[in-house]
Write a structure and sequence with these properties.
Chain A is an alpha/beta fold. Chain A is built from six helices and seven strands. In chain A, helix 3 packs parallel to helix 6.
């Protein structure tokens, strides 16, 4: 009996390590829970709404919750991301339309150095507010963001109504404009 | 079929040493700065820092990463070197810009804790295994030694002579 203890113990330890590895791989991969809920028509609350992020150009920090009551087009971007460069003029154009209906585009830079981000804002003449997710992407991860750009339309109640994982087009942004106009 | 008892302790000891040796950009030992490193030439600073930090978007060491983000990260490090920043200052600036993941160190909470706890658990398990097996190996070695050198039996004439000698001392 005693001779069997060691192989049993070694097998259990090996199984634990394999289990840990499987859990680690699944935990590290981006969550698609929000996408599923939006697809089913259950509009989830925007996660980490009270998470305060530093303002890109300037001092202080604000949270998504401070935009409650407005339609928000939450856009994760980085200066090195080519699709982000393509969609930046489109988002700026959307901002001018949303502003008239108490809505806003809210940019959040992700995995980007602030001098580069500021250069991007100047280059594309962006007027909408931009924040920095500078603590390792915790805020972005809560949205399942692992690629850029990614955009979320959040209604006046703080619920996500549409998600675009990739470059946005005018049709997608029109949904936000319609939402802002109708509510 | 039994395993050779002489090779197993050596294998366990080797495994123990491998586990305790720091290696790779993600290990704490690899990220530390020695006194000589801190005073190195600026030209050698860029490749050394690139070896020690991660490309945050591709999650591989920056020196082997090839992506637009990696290029921007390298340019940012080069600009900091150009401003005369030291290695620790550059690392702090990188953490401020990209978050702690840029150093490649696992977080000390949640699943990241496993990176620190699993090696300790493995070392403790190996020590426990050694504590369990060593007495058994000793016992087996003793019994083998005893079996290999049995006491020679006396033949009858030697036994008679021994008895006679002992009787003389009585």
């Amino acid at each position: 009996m005693r001779r069997r203890v060691i192989p049993i113990f070694a097998s259990l330890a090996g199984a634990c390590l394999v289990g840990l590895l499987i859990y680690g791989v699944s935990a590290q991969s981006a969550s698609r829970t929000l996408d599923q809920q939006v697809a089913e028509g259950r509009y989830p609350q925007a996660p980490e709404a009270n998470h305060r992020l530093p303002v890109l150009a300037g001092s202080g920090a604000i949270s998504l919750a401070s935009f409650r009551g407005r339609v928000v087009v939450l856009n994760f971007w980085a200066s090195w991301c080519e699709p982000c460069q393509v969609e930046a003029p489109l988002l700026e154009h959307t901002q001018t339309q949303l502003e008239r209906h108490d809505g806003t585009v809210l940019g959040v830079t992700y995995l980007d150095a602030s001098p580069d981000s500021l250069g991007f804002v100047r280059r594309y003449h962006l007027t909408y507010p931009n924040l920095r997710d500078n603590d390792g992407g915790d805020f972005a991860h809560s949205y399942g963001t692992d690629q850029l750009p990614e955009t979320f339309i959040i209604n006046r109640q703080g619920r996500i109504t549409a998600i675009s994982r990739g470059e946005v087009d005018q049709a997608f942004l029109n949904r936000a404009i319609t939402l802002a106009q109708s509510s | 079929m039994r395993r050779c008892p002489r090779t197993l302790p050596a294998a366990l000891l080797a495994a123990l040493l491998i586990l305790l040796a720091p290696s790779g950009p993600g290990m704490p030992g690899a990220g530390t700065t020695s006194a000589s490193a801190a005073t190195a030439e600026p030209g050698s600073l860029l490749p050394r820092i690139e070896r020690q930090v991660m490309c945050v978007s591709c999650k591989i060491p920056l020196d082997v990463a090839e992506s637009p983000q990696a290029d921007r990260e390298k340019a940012y490090i080069a600009s900091l070197i150009g401003q005369g920043e030291s290695e620790p200052q550059i690392k702090r600036a990188l953490v401020a810009q990209y978050g702690p993941t840029v150093l490649g160190l696992p977080r000390a909470h949640g699943f990241g804790l496993a990176v620190y706890l699993v090696p300790i658990a493995v070392v403790l398990a190996l020590l426990g295994l050694l504590a369990l097996l060593l007495p058994r190996w000793r016992r087996e070695a003793r019994s083998r030694a005893a079996a290999a050198s049995p006491r020679p039996a006396l033949d009858s004439s030697d036994a008679a002579r021994l008895d006679a000698d002992l009787a003389r001392f009585d």
